[in-house]
Design goal:
By secondary structure, the chain is α+β, with helices and mostly antiparallel strands. It is 42% helix and 15% strand. The chain is globular, with a radius of gyration of 24 Å.
Length: 317
Amino acid sequence: DYTAYETPCGFMSDWLNEFWDTKDDDDYRFVYMGPKGSWTPFHADVFRSFSWSANICGRKKWIFYPPGEEGNLRNKYGHLVYDVDSAELLDENLYPNYKKVRSRIEVIQEAGEIIYVPSGWHHQVYNLEDTISINHNWMNGCNVDICWEYVKDNLSQVQQEIEDCKGMDGWDQQCQLILKASCGIDYGEFLQFMEVIATNRIRLLQVHLVHKSRNLTREQRQPGSDETPSVDNIKCLADEKKADVSGACDSYTSVMNERLYSPMTEGQINHCLFDLYSVKNVLCDMIRTPEFTSLNDCENKANELIVKIEKIINSII
């Protein structure tokens, strides 16, 4: 197999593509090629995810606005400006809030450099030369709450647009269909997303507990040791480990296989726990959201996953 590149270490915790690797759809990794003079209009990234862009060749000019400034770049009809360098922004009647803009950041990206775009930062990009870049959209426990809020906000917009149909049968389901079409994900799929992320980390921690119990058993057998292994909370038996790995998504399989034969480091354990706490926070918000609990069986699935997360966390800490 040919490996064209490796994801930089700082960007490897990538829930979005970990989940999309379990699906038949395209993922959020792509190669961008743009000739000199081409450009990308003003926008924020899908799901309000993070993104990174590595220039293989060429030069780009990036224009960034911090979260919140985009409100000053909307016209009187609420539409976001297409080009932040357009002269139409000077029309105070059309863009009454443009004069309130306080922060604009410009960066020139050279070949061999990587640009990181935080969640919610709107940006516009010019290709100053013929350019090729590798790009990922990604999210993890540091911004999944922002992404979930973005999906909820999009549902609110959908509900407002078809509010005149609210009395019709199946209105909630229709809102979810439109949300999926416009936003790229609906509430049910976001729950599946959380299930995949949580399940992969629960399996890793279960395997770690097996290693830990085996090590304690070996210590117990040594002369002068009377320590009894505490394995009451371990549900993953040694002969089940390979079955657990076979259920993991492709992007996690190699990590899982490595963990079969060696215990996790403290940093890896803490990373898994952080991810699980982040998933749990989203799940708790989901079951407080009426539009989520009205969907078939979603509330039960979310509650069951919360119980599993709490159980493995209690086994570790």
